[in-house]
Amino acid sequence: MDWSAIIYATVLLLVLLPRSASDDRLVLGKPLVPGTTIVSDGGVFALGFFSLADSTPANLYLGIWYNDIPRLTAVWVANRGNPATSGTSSAPPALTLTNSSNLILSDASGRVLWTTNVTGVSGSAATAVLLNTGNLVIRSPNGTTAWQSFEHPGDTFLPGMKIRVRYRSRDGERLVSWQGADDPSPGSFTFGMDPGTPMRAGLHLIWNGTSPVARTVPWTGYATISGQFQVNSSSSVVMVSLAVVRTEEEMYLAYSLPDGSAHTRFVLTYSGEYQLQSWGSSDWAVVGKWPANECDLYGQCGPYGYCDGTVTAPTTPTCKCLDGFEPASLEE
User: Fold this and answer.
1) Which of 264, 216, 269, 284 lies closest to 244, judged by CA?
2) Residue 325: phi, psi to the nearest 5?
3) What pTM was computed for the model?
4) Which pLDDT tens digit goes with each residue over 226-260?
5) CA geometry: angle at 230 spanning 224 and 235, to 5°?
6) Element at 16 (helix H, strand E)
7) CA 253, CA 124: separation in Å to the nearest integer?
């Protein structure tokens, strides 16, 4: 008997077999528990339980992180303000897909820590799939998307996501900072598009609570504003294509990266900075941040002044009066 031929045929068959259909998805009857992960089809992202704090028992969070870099970097967390604990119970926390096409995260006692609240969809053929973009989607039996994590962002803005404002409801997605470096609970800073008057639509703001602290220039009236910019640092050259798009129902901010780019993300830090970060050989490099200077601060020069960002001399004031106005105090 030619054993070498049999071994070769067996190895070839294992190579040619497709990956298990459950590798990148959650299905009915197979909950996700600590110690197991779901990995996107291309291997870029993973969904599972992780712990950041050194508490005993540790706080457990369900999240999505980069699967192919050595440093744990969560880009989305489900139960941000409601962690589970890894105690001695024989029943660990679990993420389950239900017959109603909902994802439910429950702890050892059965207490619901987080759920998707999908309504009007049911069926045993529904699946929850982690895409290679980092988007977790619930697909109904007919293949449509019933829910997606990209529409419920955390502190990270990924390629393929939209940060938008809807004209009729005046709402939309916002990034929400972490509370601290090891605390993913919602912080006080948010980033998004201004939901106020249509004249200011397209204006991007950072808020601290309800108070705006930084702003961009407002939308100028074009249907689409797009552009590319290259950011250089000691360790990274990042090409980012940004677009602000207006449709009949909404306006949104999106961006993309060239194929083969290093992992790059926008993140709203717990200190209130909106940073562009790119992965280097062993850590994240901050290749851009906003607010970059005092002219980015909201209301920096008052209602009748403007901030001159071209000023470089430290003794020259950046705040100047609009035409027709004079300073109330030359000294100040």
Assistant:
1) 216
2) -120, 150
3) 0.83
4) 545 555 555 556 788 888 888 888 888 899 998 88
5) 145
6) helix 3-16
7) 36
